[in-house]
Amino acid sequence: MSMFLGSNLRKSWTLHIGVIILLFALQFILPAYHHGNLARIMVLACYAMGYNILFGYTGLLSLGHALFFAAGMYGMSLTVQHLGWSAGPALLAGLAAGFAVALAIGLLALRTAGVAFMIVTLMFAQAGYLAALYFGEYTRGDEGFVIQQSFRQLAGVNLADPTNRYFAALALFAICVVVSLRVVQAGFGRVLVAIRENEERTRMLGYDIHRHKLAAVVLSGTMSAAAGAAYGLLFGYAGATFASVQYSIFPLLWVLLGGAGTILGPFVGTLFMFYLIDLSSELTTAYMLIAGFALVMLTLFAPQGLVGELRRRALRWLP
Amino acid sequence: MELGPYLILGLLEGLVTAAVLSLMALGLSLVFGVMRVVNVAHGEFFMVGAVLAWIIANAVDSHPAVNFLAALLLAPPATALLAAIADRLVLKRVAYDPERTIVATIGLLYIIQQVTLMTYGPDARPVEAPFNHRLSIPFVEWTESGMALYWPWGLGTTSYKLAVIGAAVLLLGAIWLLMTRTRIGLVMRATQLDSEMARAFAVPVDRVYAAVFGLGAGLAALAGVLIVPIQQAHYLMGHDPLLLSFIVVIIGGLGSLPGTVVAALLIGISDGMISVFFTPTLAKIIATLGVAFVLIFRPQGLFGRKGL
Amino acid sequence: MTLLSTRGLSRNFGGLKAVDNVDFDLPAGEVRALIGPNGAGKTTFVGMLSGRIPASAGTVSFDGRDVTMMPAHRRIRAGMAYTFQITSVFSRLPVAENVALALRWRTGDDLAATDRQVAEALDRVGIADRADQLAGDLSYGHQRLLEIAMGLSQQPRLLILDEPTQGLADSEIVDFVALIRGLAGDMTILLIEHNINVVMQTADAITVLNFGSVLASGTPSEIRNNAAVQAAYLGTG
Q1: CB-neighbour burial class of residue B144 (10 A; exposed 0-12, middle 13-18, buried 19+)
Q2: Among partner residues A2, A194, A204, which is closest to C82 by beta-carbon distance?
Q3: Measured between alpha carbons, how far is B283 from A316 in angstroms, rounded to an integer?
Q4: pLDDT band at B218 (very low <50, low <70, confident <90, very high)
Q5: Among residues 157-216 of chain A, which lie with CB inside 8 Å of chain C?
Q6: How far is B261 from chain A (nearest CA, A)?
Q7: Nearest CA in chain C to A203
Q8: Are B281 and A130 spatial neighbours (Cβ–Cβ below 8 Å)?
Q9: SS3 for C184?
Q10: Is the pLDDT confidence value at A298 over 70?
């Protein structure tokens, strides 16, 4: 039994640190185009990992995570654009915005459950998107605004440079993997899984369900906001599109594809979907068709996702 | 123009919105009521109705009234069939699990929308109304000789818009009769109350579900056909009506027909009124937040007794 | 010393009085059986004790404190454990993790203590060899034992067992009776039970509920000879 609780810990750390080292090495091998893509994918995977904490581990299906992503992105970019803050404080502003929005949404939306929770999160995110359009004077709406290169410096490192950008994305990715692993292995994460599996039983084992769910929403929202802030900073653009419904659906799609409730699933799903859309958009402008088919096929045939299926069939110890 | 005529104009526009909205929301509500699932692709069936109307009208290519009549008769059943097939191929296989159904219908939404983009294209195209007389509306004013009628500039509607309102009233009445007075309605209500029990009484639950899903989509498509002479057919046109029908259904209480109609009137008219006075974006922000707060603090809806 | 008591405890569902004005006292260390015909309000009553169901009226006190308004999870931490009538283990999690969840709020980050106590609890109910299986793969009888192990591992002062022998085979029931006898003295036990043989073999005292009210209370032999109890049971078959 201590086998069960102990040695798998080492295996999973080895695997995940291995993945991070592999991604580090890829930087020196990949051609420029894929190198840029991978940086983007790693940041988006952080968004998906944030989503996964709530959906995959806690079992709460949100349709409004774009609100958190956008809160991070605008928290960062608006302070840069209109208050002239430098990148460091602006990133923190993005995180703080995400934290505050997640706390407020959590307190409100967790009064509902199931389908009502999905619709409430959808509505709040829609209101957030519309607010980004309404305050177009500052956000420039769907058109968005570019963050000048001169502002994209963190501790003297120019984040607009592709190599630096790749390492910054990798650093964020590594932080998110480590945080997710720590959460999942700690008692807190195990209670989240228990809530997903059987909420009433978990309550009757002495756990405060509401407090755990709220913490999960806040952690999930803040991680999504970190991804949003980093995305804006690394790629130098902020726009209301990132607050739209589509960007609430994406992390759901990535997590479902990769495997809900697995640490690497979000990354695998993001990687897959990114290249699927990248390849298909060369053929057609209707690239969201691929996303639609993927969603239907996944719900029908592989609700566990790629990494989830791998865990089910071979590697039971995968976190 | 003074305030009064503006209000009348807002009211009329609002009634047209309410008419279309109540048909569409009724479809959504029916599907939820009987099958206990939320169809996120509902707005796309509205869009398919409008796009098919354009295609049919162009294929018939006769007098506008004939074109429109053909569209009105053919587009909703065709959309209903499409929905029933989707029900069989997808929803039935996820066993109508509420959460998986939402994810699957999000997938359907993108499939329908993007296939329309690939075939029909990104343009917005109109269908000519079967009749379209312009009607000016008089308003009263006080003159030195007492009360008098005058015709303010810009205050008016069309015979077609009035016909849309009338058609919606007739259709809603027909649905109400269908649900309360016929065997089909009885079977639906039995399935709604307890699908296992209904199955035990030899109700073909699978076929009822496919029919209800089809009927819901057909109502959305009907709304789409009715709106297309006023508003052009476009592959993204389903988005706003979906949001509004969510609002209507949630405020009216899911599965309640009278509640749906009252809420559609409320939302349609206030939408008409608010957009006369406020920017549409602000109106939508207020409305979406309103829905969220109704669901949080009064989940049974403002009028309904049973909730989600 | 009285560990648990209720005064005027009532619960209405619509117009129906599921539990009506119950005064109940459970001394520390006792094994008490709660019996009664179907629909007598037993599960509703223990639901109010554990906080799953809010009371319409009356009070519950536990360990000298009024816990009527205390949420369920805090009552559990105050020393109550509750096992469900319908087996409610985490079927997609390993057996060991099921038990670990029940005690981790006590052991915290101490992995060694968690492991040791999980092993102890599983050993006590006799399913230690199945620690790594998924709980859902266990037989029904073993799932019921797992439920009890989860209850025990909380080291509760009061263990509430809702129909623990329901659906068990005769041989399993014999083991269960032995288990409860072994626990008596370590903790106070409130046992809802249909099987009258199990009740007679394990309980120090019996409380009979009928139509939401206490019909009788006393030692097993007193209850056996109580005319009102006999009437209630014969009356409902």
Answers
A1: exposed
A2: A204
A3: 51
A4: very high
A5: 186-187, 190-191, 193-194, 197-198, 200-209
A6: 21
A7: C73
A8: yes
A9: strand
A10: yes
Cα–Cα distance measured from residue B270 to residue B290, given in angstroms and rounded to the nearest whole number:
13
Q: Tell me the C-alpha to C-alpha distance, in Å, between residue B299 and each of A106, B252, C98.
A: 17, 10, 34
Q: How big is chain A by its Cα radius of gyration, in Å?
A: 19
- Locate the domains of chain C by residue range: 2-79+158-236, 91-155
Of A219, A209, A214, the closest CA to residue A184 belongs to: A219
Q: Supply the pTM of this predicted model.
A: 0.83
Residue B227 lies in a domain: yes
Domain of residue B242, CATH code:
1.10.3470
The Cα C171–Cα B13 span in angstroms is: 76
Cα A165 versus chain centre, distance: 18
Q: What is the rounded (10 degree) CA torsion for B22, B25, B27, B33?
A: -120
Q: Is residue B303 part of a domain?
A: no
Using DSSP, state whether A18 is helix, strand or coil.
helix
The 10s digit of each residue's pLDDT in C160-198 is: 998 888 888 888 888 888 888 888 878 899 999 888 888
What beta strand segments (E) does C37-196 contain? 57-62, 65-66, 80-83, 158-162, 188-192
Question: How far apart, in whole angstroms, are the C-alpha atoms of residue A30 and residue A25?
Answer: 9
pLDDT for residue B306? 45
Helix (H, G, I), strand (E, B) or coil at C214: strand
Q: How many domains does chain B have?
A: 1
3-state secondary structure B112-135: HHHHHHHHCCCCCECCCCCCCCEE
Q: How far is CA A98 from the centre of its chain?
A: 12
CATH of region C2-79+158-236, choose from 3.40.50.720, 2.30.30.280, 3.40.640.10, 3.40.50.300? 3.40.50.300
Backbone angles phi, psi at A56, to 5 degrees: -75, -45
Q: Do A205 and C150 touch (CB under 8 A)?
A: yes
Inter-CA distances, C74 with A303, B301, C78, C162, C188, Å: 36, 33, 6, 20, 18
Residues belonging to chain C with any Cβ–Cβ distance to chain A shorter than 8 Å: 50, 52, 71-74, 76-77, 82, 84, 88-94, 96-97, 100-102, 104-105, 108-109, 111-112, 114-115, 118-119, 131-132, 150, 154
Please report the ipTM that was assigned to this predicted complex.
0.87
Upper half-sphere CA count for residue A311 (Cβ side, 13 Å): 20
C210 and C19 Cβ atoms separated by less than 8 Å: no
Distance in angstroms (rounded) separating the CA atoms of residues C65 and C79: 12
The tokens for C42 are 């037993």
Task: Tell me whether residue A297 is in a domain.
Answer: no
Q: Dig out the tokens for A302 from the structure.
A: 């592989």
Contact between B307 and B300 under an 8 Å Cβ cutoff? The reply is yes
* Domain coverage including residue A18: 2-244
Neighbors of chain A with 3 or more C-beta pairs under 8 Å: B, C
Of B261, C172, B32, residue with least CA distance to A119:
B32
HSE (side-chain half, CA atoms, 13 Å) at A140 = 12
Dig out the tokens for C216 from the structure: 């009788």
Q: Which of A42, A16, A13 is nearest to A27 (CA)?
A: A42
Domain count, chain A: 1
The closest CB to that of A5, out of C74, C84, C111, belongs to C111
Domain that includes residue B69, residue range: 3-297
Nearest to B304 by CA among B255, B246, B270, B266: B255
Q: For the segment A58-72, what is each residue's pLDDT rounded down to a tens digit?
A: 999 898 999 999 999
